[in-house]
Amino acid sequence: MLELKTERLLLRPPIPEDAERMQRILDDFEVAKNLSRVPHPYPENGAYEYIERISGNDTAPFDQKFSIIDKDGQYCGMTGYGQQGEVPQLGYYLDPLHWGKGYMTEACRAVIEWMFAVATPDYIKSGVFETNAASLAIQTKLGFNEVGRSHMHCLAQNTDLPHIDTQLKREAFIAATNAH
After folding, report:
1. Burial class of residue 38 in the structure, from the number of CB atoms within 10 Å of its CB (0-12 exposed, 13-18 middle, 19+ buried)
2. Which residue from 145, 16, 143, 13 is spatially nearest to 78, judged by alpha carbons?
């Protein structure tokens, strides 16, 4: 099983044992409102079904998902990639109990390093809804640059929302990580 380790976290593919905490986190409107494809309320057994659907994607780096496991061995969120054409798109969420601890910056730094080590994308795409300043701050720390504005549908809010489109080039990531 693919595993990435950071100073405080373990990142590995999601397993059925993650489903209960994943379900609770994704059913929290404060989390779901910042994600495009997560409905609110989150469907019963949705986490189990999601994990079952994505299991076995370990060999496709542009579609790899990582559970974020804290030092106590608890699932606390997810990061990873979805593929848009020939470009990986980074996404993530974290349990509000862990907000403000730097976990997501640490986790995303590790999965970005991994992506640039195992594949040669020209860049990594991401983005945030305009109201999600904390997520934009994470991306900025990691070297992402704004490349446009758009509107994206948010299932939890059942509306199209203003979205900041970002991308990260390898050189910008290296410069940002050397600066911090």
Report:
1. buried
2. 13
Residue type, 177: T
Distance CA 48, CA 3 (A): 21
113: which residues sit within 8 A by CB, 6+ positions away?
A: none
In this structure, what CATH number is given to the domain that contains residue 104? 3.40.630.30
List, in sequence order, every residue forming a beta bridge with 167; answer none if it has no partner: 125, 145
pLDDT in tens, 80-93: 999 877 899 999 99
For residue 60, name the pLDDT band (cuts at 50, 70, 90). confident
Name the helix (H) or strand (E) containing 115. Answer: helix 103-118
According to DSSP, the β-strands at 10-12 and 65-69 are: antiparallel
Give the global pTM.
Answer: 0.95
Q: 90-115 burial by CB neighbour count: b if 16+ within 10 A, else e?
A: bbbbbbeebeeeebbebbbbbbbebb
Name the nearest CA neighbour of 37 among 155, 164, 168, 167: 155
Domain extent for 81: 4-179
β-strand 10-12 against 75-84: which pairing, if any? unpaired
Return the sign of the alpha-carbon dihedral for residues 5, 119, 94, 43.
negative
